[in-house]
């Protein structure tokens, strides 16, 4: 439904939807600011875009902005939300009533979530750190998928700055299949050494049997 431009705040909302685009479920948001406005790509700014802007997109068009508002000079503030592409209000509201994943950590060093129903844990290490029994010596992304006694671990180093990343898992595992860029030492703790030089952000996977 088309609406006129507006700017407003909502206290402790559980979700928001942008019709035809996505639903947003808020897990940690005391105040959310929402605005709609007309935006136009000015001719003098076209040269700053990496791709050519088609003619139909150069005129003034409506934009919606949703912002988790921490106010002025926040300290140690956090936020968490889920994006549901193309979800309508009904689907978004249903998702918000029973969020199917758990936030394991929400710190500047290591945000992490787990969806138990599918056995997936996803961890982003912005620097060396530890979370949920997983540690990394450098910035990287680690995803773990557990099913029927098998654990698959994928490691990605998206900064393209490190030649090697070491990931430790506080579990006894037995290797089944390792990507050629991964070596593993398996004791009571499983240590993965991942060669990330020239990986260009590609993720490398190892598969283990859980002892």
List keywords for this structure.
211 residues; mainly beta; Chondroitinase Ac, Chain A, domain 3; 7-stranded antiparallel β-sheet; 1 helix; 4% helix; globular
What does this structure look like?
- The protein has 211 residues and is mainly beta.
- It has two domains: 6-97, no CATH class; 102-210, Polysaccharide lyase family 8-like, C-terminal (Chondroitinase Ac, Chain A, domain 3).
- It is built from one helix and 18 strands.
- The chain has one helix at residues 89-97; strands spanning 6-11, 15-18, 22-28, 31-39, 61-68, 80-85, 102-105, 112-115, 120-125, 129-131, 134-136, 140-147, 150-156, 164-169, 173-178, 182-186, 190-195, 203-210.
- The chain has a seven-stranded antiparallel beta sheet, with no helix packed on it.
DSSP strand tally: 18
Shape: globular
The main sheet orders its strands as 7-8-9-12-13-18-15
Radius of gyration: 22 Å
| Tally of DSSP helical segments | 1
Q: What is the succession of H and E elements?
A: EEEEEEHEEEEEEEEEEEE
Query: What level of helicity do the residues show?
Result: under 10%
Major beta-sheet overview? 7 strands, antiparallel
